[in-house]
Structures are given as structure tokens and as C-alpha cells.
Amino acid sequence: MDLVFVVIATLFVSFLFVVAGWQKMRAPRYYAAVIGEYQLPLVAGNKAVAITIGLAELCTGFLLLIPVSRELAAWFAALLLLIYALAIGINLLRGRMSIDCGCSGPAANKQKLSAWLLARNGLLAVVAIAAGITPLSRELIWFDLVVIVLAVSLAFLVYAGTEQLIANSTRLRNLRG
């Protein structure tokens, strides 16, 4: 895989994990309540669990930026995303779609569980794995840097737009009854 694609994937996933971890560190009570709503047998909904998950996400995000730890951090990021998808999937199978996924943080609109979140997490796991691939060895040129900045910016815009569409679909479903 070309170095530019690996850098784009790495920066995107790193930023997502740093933001997610930071949100959990800033609002551990909120996330403890969200985790508790999932009603999973091995995960209690308390501040210690929320802080631990937040630290894991923060560390993963920063370790993605260090070349020697990037591959392992990328696999760990993919694993976390798939674990989150599993928790969502379990609750969807239980018919518990009305709980907040916790994806948007305490200040944003609540985002309910949906199949879209499973698809999103699956796609993000693929991007995380791409971040861990050893790229073809070559030097970055100025044009590569322009492409990286534009592509990462576009990826964030698409991600934010997708998050808003998922949240809006929940609101529309609630309006329709």
C-alpha cells in the first residue's frame, strides 16, 4: 500500500481515538451511565471502566502516531471498534435500540443504536487495519502532503456528515412513531 494512504488512515483513526478518549476522560460519569445501559455481563457501568476505556483510546490514538508502535496500535484500534460493534449488535438483537450509543459525547444529541452504527464501526475497523499496514518505502513529496491534508479533512467531513445522518435517522424514526 502506498505511504500516502497509510498516513491518511493513521491520522484519521488517531484523531478519532484521541477525541473519543478525551471525551470519556472529561465526562466519566456520563460514559459510566452509557456503558451501564448496555447491560453487558462483564462490563460494569462505573467511572473506573469509563476512565479505563478513555485511557485505552487516548493511548491508542497517540501510539498510532509513533512508527514503532503504529502496527500494534492499529490492530488494537480495530479490535476496540469491533468490540464496540459487538456490544451494539448484542443490544440490537435484544431489541434495545433506544439506548444512547455514547458515540457523540455528552454535549451532543443522543445517538440511538442502529445497524448503521455496526456498518460504521466495521468500516472504521478496516481503516484502522489499513493504518497498520507497512507502506511501500518512498519519500513524501510536497504534493503528497497536500493530498494528505485534503484527504484527512475530507474524511473528517464525511465522518461528521455520516454521524449526523445516523443521528437524524433515529430522530426521524421517533417522529414517525
Overview of the structural elements:
The longest helix is centred in the last third of the chain and has 35 residues, at 142-176. The chain has six helices and no strands. α1 (3-26) packs antiparallel against α3. It is mainly alpha-helical and 177 residues long. The protein has one domain (3-176). The protein is globular and about 55 Å long. It starts with a helix and ends with a helix. The protein has helices at 3-26, 28-37, 47-63, 70-93, 115-131, 142-176. Helix content is 72%, strand content 0%.
In summary, what is this structure?
By secondary structure, the chain is mainly alpha-helical.
Secondary structure category: mainly alpha
Spans with pLDDT under 50 lasting ≥5 residues?
none
DSSP summary, beta strand count: 0
Q: Cα distance, first to last residue?
A: 47 Å
DSSP helix fraction: over 70%
> Into how many domains do the coordinates divide?
1
So what's the overall shape? globular
Radius of gyration: 17 Å
Mean pLDDT, as a whole number?
Answer: 91
Largest sheet: none
Following the backbone from N to C, one meets helices and strands in this order, namely HHHHHH
What fraction of the residues are assigned to beta strands by DSSP? under 5%
Continuous helix count: 6
